[in-house]
Give the backbone structure.
Amino acid sequence: MLLAIIIYTFKKFYKKVYSLPRKQVTRWIVFIVLIVVPLLLASNETKSGFRDTEFHMYDVFKADKKIGYIQIEKQISGKNITYYINSEIKTKLIFNFNAISKERVRFKRDTLTESSIFRKLNNKVRINEKLEYKDGGYYLVKDNKEKLITQEVIKWNLIRLYFEEPNRINKVYCDRYKKYQNLTHLGDGKYKVIFPNRSSNIFHYQAGRCVQVDAIGSFYQVKLVKRNTDLVSR
């Protein structure tokens, strides 16, 4: 493809360039070799670097009122898969509630290698931590300190549930609580995860895609509804 573009460029400008003085012809050749070709090569490398990028958007509803959004991005580069989550929720439970969250998760060959969570509640940082896989275990990095969490290899965590139906697993790792939680198959494309604080998420799937998540707690119940305007680039 790259060679074809170069040949096309030469053919397109050959007659014009041929009629120019030798100095100008030399400048044209230098320009193509030193400027055009490197740019084409760089463009080709960038395209092959990230082969696939997928975006999912979910609107968050409390009753029938929209209170926020969750944006999830999946990037595939070679054997690495990286997920990004950005969300903002504004509502009133007992008091005004403004939550901002950013998460990043990376898998290599289906194994979690690192993840990070940053969350603010009403402009105050509540969580800022990182999980790293090294020396055969997962270490929590928080406040410049490391702590071994588990030596069990993590294949599934919650973020994967937004992109893949978990019809062959019965547990999923929860980054927030640093442990595996049971995954219950409810039938009809529904799966339930119960967390240590008794709250739960119910994931709804259609044709293998997560279209809705019910988040249920002691003092709240919200619904994440997937938009139909997903973006996929290759």
Helices lie at 2-18, 22-49. The chain is about 20% helix and 55% strand. Residues 52-227 form one domain. The first strand starts at residue 52 and ends at 62.
